[in-house]
Give the backbone structure.
Amino acid sequence: MSKAKKQDSEKVVSLFDTPMKQKRYETGIDIWRKGGKAQDAAFQHSVLCQTSFPYRNPGNDLKIWEHSQGRASLNIQCLQEKNPKTGEFMYLGLPYGTKARLIMAYLNTQAIKSQSPIIDVESSITAFIQQIGLAKKGKNVNDVKEQLARIASSIITLTYQADEEHSLNARFALV
C-alpha cells in the first residue's frame, strides 16, 4: 500500500474511534439505502431512552425497580395478580430484558402514530410477535407472553427533574 493510501485509510479509521460512532454511521447508511421514512420510524419516550428496564431478571423478591440517569428517572412497581388456577394473589415480577424493551418501543410507537392511548396489539400472540419484528418460534412466544404479563401487572412511572423545585411525572398502567 502506498504511503498516501495508508494515510487516507488512517483518516477514515479515525472518524470511527469508538464502536458507537461506527454503529451510528452504519445505521445512517442503512436508513439512506433503504429510503427510510418517518412513518417507518420507531419511537421511545425520552426517559426510557435515558434509563432502562432491568437487563436481567431481578428475581421475585424485588418489587420495585428504580433507575436514574441525569434528570430522568424510571420507577417500575410490580403488583399482585390473581392466579386463575389457585385463586391466590401472586407477583408476576418486574419486566426485564430485550423483549420487554422491544414491547415498550412498539407500544410507544403505536401510541404516537395513532395519537391514541388505545393500542391494538393484534388478535393472537404470534401475530403480535411478528408485528414487533421477532420470529414466531417457541422461545420468543413464551418470552413475549411472560414480558407482556409482567408489563401489564406493573405501574411504570417516568420522571424528569425540570429544575430544583419542579419535576414532571407520568404514570402508566396497561389495562
User: Anything to note?
Assistant: Residues 31 and 37 are 8 Å apart (CA to CA). The beta strands are 64-69, 72-78, 80-82, 89-91, 154-161, 167-173.
